[in-house]
Design a protein that fits this description.
The chain is an all-alpha fold. It is built from eight helices and no strands. The N and C termini lie far apart (48 Å). GO terms for molecular function: endopeptidase activity.
């Protein structure tokens, strides 16, 4: 792995780890209690900005990175978003046909419980988390890794880790969505494309759940 790739990967992964554990550390030190969710929201949003800065500061053009027009990014981002809905509905229909029941998402249920009391938490879930996850799972574990191993293997590794990170009973859905996001990144040569699809997906899920 080249020096620039190593710096980019380490900076993003270390930054993500710090952002992820920071609310827990602060809660143990200061017993945040009632303000834990405002702190988590700020942590995720500011964390996303930090990872964007780290990605540019420790710049690395891997074998996928290039330049794409915003019109191209938005178009493929929206198309990718639609395909994520198709994937989710398809897997759920297959699951229902086999098991005669649907498996509720534990992550979504927990998020909606928080969201019902703290609406601003939507910023963390629909904006902060997707940006950070794309930089970690697509930029580092797919894009950077694809510079040294076949892209198909890098995509599978990235998607498996993405699926395991969401461990809530929908591993197949997250794995396939992860593969789709890898494709969007590679198809447009721009990580912003998968970010757009990811942001739209999370925002729609929260909106639908809130209206139910």
């Amino acid at each position: 792995m080249s020096k620039s790739t190593s710096k980019n990967s380490i900076a993003i992964l270390l930054g993500y780890l710090i952002i992820f554990i920071l609310p827990t550390i602060l809660n143990q030190i200061f017993s945040l209690k009632s303000v834990i969710y405002p702190v988590m929201t700020a942590d995720y949003v500011l964390g996303a900005l930090l990872l964007i800065w780290l990605n540019h500061h420790f710049s690395n053009k891997n074998s996928i990175d290039g330049q794409s027009k915003w019109s191209h990014i938005i178009l493929w981002g929206i198309l990718g978003f639609i395909l994520t809905l198709v994937i989710q509905m398809g897997i759920q229909l297959i699951s229902y046909a086999i098991l005669k029941t649907t498996v509720a998402s534990q992550n979504t249920s927990e998020i909606m419980t928080i969201f019902s009391k703290y609406p601003y938490y939507m910023l963390a879930v629909s904006l902060g988390a997707p940006i950070m996850e794309e930089l970690v799972f697509r930029k580092v574990f797919f894009g950077n890794l694809a510079s040294f191993i076949p892209p198909a293997f890098a995509a599978m590794i990235s998607s498996l880790l993405f699926s395991l990170a969401h461990n809530d009973g929908h591993l197949a859905i997250y794995f396939l969505i992860g593969l789709l996001f890898c494709y969007l990144y590679k198809r447009t040569d721009d990580i912003k494309t998968s970010m757009v699809a990811h942001i739209l997906m999370n925002s729609l899920v929260l909106t639908i759940q809130a209206l139910l």
